[in-house]
Design goal:
With 287 residues, the chain is of the alpha/beta class. 40% of the residues lie in helices and 21% in strands. The protein has a domain of 65 residues.
Length: 287
């Protein structure tokens, strides 16, 4: 199966001399083909930089990024990104947005039209094909963007907190919807998030990252059966053990970043302390 990505000894920094800021340092990471790898780490640790390296939008300062053993040299439709913010063209209707990739490559209509129609049906937007992005809900926009990526038949999909900003109910529905799409296609997925519940529900492999400069802290195999239902995962002792292990690691990394003066780490600690039972002590409660 194609779609295996690997990062070896990857470093990425910005600036020169005294202004140099290392974001990634000595990062080794495997993203196996046909599996859903979820990346989670403290806010500000460098996850979005990792997304840009995987997509080929940027190159590492040192080290290598490969797809099926071949160096990633730039953006390529074999690796497509779904971003945090909507990237739908507001002047195009849903059908035209979904078909944009193959049309821009000069593929004849008979080559993309049946697939685009099938994808609109699959994501539940066939009745909204003539609508514009501003006429869709947030969840519908996310589904349209998934369809726009899938019509290009990428080997790897890279998702950078794609459901951030959705209300809680829509977000839960999108988790189930996205998990079903993964089950159908089994394309390699790299899903970046800061939400531990989202991570445990979706992942085959959960990669916990350190604070910046980012490296892999631990890889946790999420051996929960598929297909998954939110209620089953919530009631699962194994899911809870995975969640607590990940939160312990994330808390340790956030404390290290906090000690170094990271404001993002302070925000992280405040948010994640509320998710643990018993509560995680914060610097304020230790004082």
């Amino acid at each position: 199966m194609n779609g295996a990505m690997q990062l070896l000894g990857v470093a990425k920094s910005y600036g020169e001399g005294a202004a140099r800021r290392p974001v990634l340092e000595g990062l080794d990471l495997d993203i196996p083909a046909g599996r859903l790898t979820v990346i989670i780490g403290p806010s500000g640790c460098g996850k979005s930089t990792l997304v840009r390296l995987l997509a080929g939008f940027e190159r590492p300062t040192r080290g290598s990024v490969t797809l099926d053993g071949r160096p990633v040299g730039g953006a390529d439709r074999r690796r497509l990104v779904v971003f945090q913010e909507s990237a739908l063209f507001p002047w195009m209707n849903v059908a035209d947005n979904v078909a944009y990739g193959p049309r821009a490559r000069g593929v004849r209509p008979q080559g993309w039209r049946p697939q685009a129609a099938a994808l609109l049906e699959r994501v539940g937007l066939r009745a909204f094909a003539g609508r514009y992005p501003s006429q869709l809900s947030g969840g519908m926009q996310r589904r349209a963007e998934l369809a726009r990526a899938l019509v290009n038949e990428p080997e790897v999909m890279i998702l950078d907190e794609p459901f951030r900003g959705l209300d809680a109910m829509t977000r839960e529905l999108m988790h189930a919807y996205y998990a079903d799409l993964f089950e159908e296609t089994r394309r390699t997925q790299c899903f970046v998030t800061t939400d531990i519940d989202e991570a445990v529900f979706l992942a085959d492999r959960l990669v916990v990252m350190s604070h910046a400069p980012m490296r892999v802290r631990e890889v946790i195999e999420v051996d929960l059966p598929r297909p998954r239902r939110a209620a089953d995962v919530l009631a699962s002792d194994r899911a809870n053990d995975i969640k607590m292990r990940a939160l312990t690691l994330l808390h340790e990394e956030a404390m290290r970043a906090f000690a170094g003066g990271s404001r993002a780490a302070g925000d992280f600690l405040a948010a994640y302390a509320r998710r643990r039972a018993p509560a995680v002590p914060t610097p304020e409660t230790r004082a």
